[in-house]
Amino acid sequence: MKAVVYIEKNYQTNKLRNVTVELAWKAYSLVKPHGGEVVGIFAGDKLPDDYEDLFKYGVDRVVYYKNDALSNLQSIALKHVLSNMVRSENPEIVLFGATHNGRDVAPLVASVLKTGLTADCTQLYIDEYKDKGKILFQVRPAFGGNILATIITPDNRPMMATVREGVMLLPEETVSKPLKVEEFRTEFNMEWIKNEFLEVVPKVSKVDFHSANIIVAGGAGVGCKENFKLLEQLAAVLGAEVGASRAAVDFGFTEKERQVGQTGSVVRPKLYIACGISGSIQHRAGMEESKKIIAINKDPNAPIFDIAHMGIVGDLKEIIPVMIKYLREEG
Ligand SMILES: Cc1cc2nc3c(=O)[nH]c(=O)nc-3n(C[C@H](O)[C@H](O)[C@H](O)COP(=O)(O)OP(=O)(O)OC[C@H]3O[C@@H](n4cnc5c(N)ncnc54)[C@H](O)[C@@H]3O)c2cc1C
Description:
alpha/beta
């Protein structure tokens, strides 16, 4: 069984996107038990500087198509080139990151290859299906996140899926594989270059969930923007990042980029402190894989306590100042 992973880079830094590394490892975990191969495909002006890291995360081969006309995101050109690359590999599975680029290009490639694509998968596994043998089961939230749908592509190949950054786990220990890099050649038509990039304005984000060991997140129960400062103070004492539920964002307590959950970021810190968050399925989708979860909620029956490792029942306006005082005094 062969899996292809689309290699995506950050155009500003020329470094691999985290999601590519996560998908490489996921692909390796999927096909390794079946003696399969993982191939990373890249099309662009130059390979990411750190592409060799992919071999530590299970990639057997990197195949790249180099063309300076692809120095930025050119969806139509990528559609043609990537479809040719996938065809030539003839894999069973193709994985794309659910990034802006992946969400744009993956459906175009799927339509050329006349196969199915499941977007934003939260789980992928291989199992037997009727007389079809081993196929890819693609799990994703559906109907507003109220159910989990398992989607299959039994008749067409490849079986394609996109996955958001942070959803798939990285291993504690990596593997060691020889570097195998191959150049791909294909016809290229300059008429495929449809986008003209006048200026690229990098998005400057204050929020860095990826490197945060601790996240202090607030929900509707925080009550108002003024109270949200309490969470920011707690986060400052702990050296933590600040997150939020969608309700807290909708109420204007904090910025949208801090939203955790199904339609926000997926996070896996060592410690997640959920303050005044009820624990809806959509919020849990973004944080329940955190190593330790502490929940502060005045309702002892709040669903967040079902997944919390430690629960504090009470008013966060009283509890958080005590925590801050203790941490400041005890260091
Ligand atoms: C398609 C779709 C996508 C969605 N995506 C997301 C998403 O990405 N992220 C997300 O978070 N939500 C998402 N939602 C919304 C989600 O369904 C919930 O509405 C939301 O998570 C609720 O946020 P909350 O827990 O902050 O608010 P509530 O559910 O209102 O809970 C507030 C909690 O605060 C507690 N509380 C109140 N006062 C205090 C106090 N003084 N001290 C301590 N506790 C207190 C209450 O007991 C309660 O449990 C989505 C919904 C849909 C339909």
